[in-house]
TrEMBL record:
Keyword terms of this UniProt record: Hydrolase, Membrane, Transmembrane, Transmembrane helix
Membrane-crossing residue ranges in chain numbering: 134-156
Entries under SMART domains matching the protein: HDc
Pfam families xref list: HD_5
Molecular function, one GO term: phosphoric diester hydrolase activity
Designated name of the protein: Metal dependent phosphohydrolase
Occurrences of domain HD-GYP (ranges): 167-362
Native organism: Gallionella capsiferriformans (strain ES-2)
Amino acid sequence: MAFEQAAASARHFDSPEMRKLVAADSQMSLLELAKLLENSSFAGIRIFDSSGKSLMEAWGMEAGSLRSTVQAHQHVFPKPGKQHYNWLTNEDEDFVQVLIPLLDSMRVTEVYFEGVYRLDVGTRYARKHQARNATLTSFVAVILILILLYPVLLGLTRRSESLSQSLLDSNLELLQSLGSAIAKRDADTDTHNYRVTLYSVRLAETMNLNRDSIESLIVGAFLHDVGKIGVPDQILLKPGRLTADEFEIMKRHVVFGGEIIQDSTWLKRARDVVLFHHEKFDGSGYPHGIYGKDIPLSARLFAVVDVFDALMSKRPYKESLLIDDALKILQDGAGGHFDPEVVGIFITVAATLYGEIGQSDRGYLQKTLKVIIKKYF
């Protein structure tokens, strides 16, 4: 409706008088154009030649910044018999910019007339009412579509969640099966894996590690010795002290472990613990001899609980230590073997953790680990 009103007003200027006015191209022509503007519904008028070059223009007294708004708008010059429209808003007023070609007797564009038509109150209301109705209609349509699609989307979401949970369960089962199989190669039971994993999580929580770090720590703790699958039995199961050459072969288990997990997107999060848990704070560890804070925090943390559990466990070749003796060894190793900050924090919770974890049977350890896995995965 607004477009039709603007076009109708513009066509009043398609007259011999307008062509004569344009042809004069003088100051008097500008005055005449201004008079025409006063008697129209336009806030501004511009005239262009057939090539699009501006010839003259006139603006009402209240045009204000409207002129700049119009000039900033790019033109599309229409073909003969066509019109071009734009909605414009300036200082909370609505306008229609209409551009029509004025044709000569041969139906060839002689000039272009541009009028900036100010919408009256009724038209503005109708436009806003129409826009509101269109918006409401679109909103209702979207709601109806969502209602129709909701069961489908819900089903897809639930299926995706179910598949994700199944994949996670499979990965966790693989983690525990693989870790337990390796642990039983050099021990009668896999409880060491459960204990060091639980110790690691409790210490990480005490140290306020973030969720992602704890998830990776759980996987790394359970798989920390996965590389021992590549160590020959005569070395891995040797009851006595290893020779220098045998120890060099034993040290390679961390590298083997890194190679085993590197091709699994899910298992390779264990990398920091698997590769670096035998590094020492003073740089005397293996396989890379890195030191201090260059050793990943999860590996520095795990090194403490791994040694603690070994000291507190009975083996065929040794008896378990008293907790005070084990903690004394950790303290003596702070700054050398271990990160002193991690040792200091662990000592404050060691007795409590040992009471909960260190003296528990396999069933309790499995149950507790399941609770932790449910919490973090």
